[in-house]
């Protein structure tokens, strides 16, 4: 089947697609929950089985073009909910044969630099996966220093959280921290140089903020 012409489908390959299909072992009439729809890779593959029924969830409105495309083609066998997967218990009671979770931030979100998920971006600090009440900019500029430090330390496992938080607080006294590259600059100035470090110095802090938002 042809995919919709949207940026969501460009270079998007679901993680371990063959293994997921094998484990689900779809038969005619199977009911499957795709709890993290994303680019629709699992749903599209499973719908190739003639009578498989898919109920999909995603909190990110950016996936709606793909979901709507699949709905038009498989309108009787595919249902999409723009919702958190924690709401699956609100579905009408029915038997389910398999449930798929592909947890974590999506490449579809990281690759869209305008959404401010990646430290390679220069866009506004956003990091909203959808349905969030706040943005990364809100957290960085308004949260109490102790809370901010705990977010970075515990959700990012960042050992230099205190130094990073201290410099965030200093910076935001004089100006609002608006963009991703501004936060990157603060983190880089706060971190001690570690030779042979395998990951970018910003990775853990950005991970923490993304998780919290």
Protein architecture, described:
This protein is an alpha/beta fold and 213 residues long. It is built from 9 helices and 4 strands. It has a 4-stranded parallel β-sheet with strand order 3-2-1-4. α6 (145-156) crosses α7 and α6 (145-156) packs across α9. The longest helix has 14 residues, at 161-174. The protein is elongated and about 60 Å long.
Name the features:
single chain; alpha/beta; 4 strands; disordered N terminus
Chain-wise SSE layout:
Blueprint: H1 17-24, E1 31-34, H2 41-46, E2 53-58, H3 64-73, E3 78-82, E4 98-100, H4 107-110, H5 136-142, H6 145-156, H7 161-174, H8 180-190, H9 203-212
Parallel strand pairs: 1-2, 1-4, 2-3
Helix pairs in contact: 6-7, 6-9, 7-8
Oligomeric state of this protein = single chain
Helix content: 25-40%
Count of runs of 4 or more consecutive helical residues: 9
How big a fraction of the residues is strand?
5-15%
Give the overall shape, derived from the CA principal axes.
Answer: elongated
Poorly predicted spans? 1-11
The computed structural class is: alpha/beta
The total beta strand count reads 4
Give a quick rundown of the structure:
This protein is of the alpha/beta class and 213 residues long. The chain is 38% helix and 8% strand.
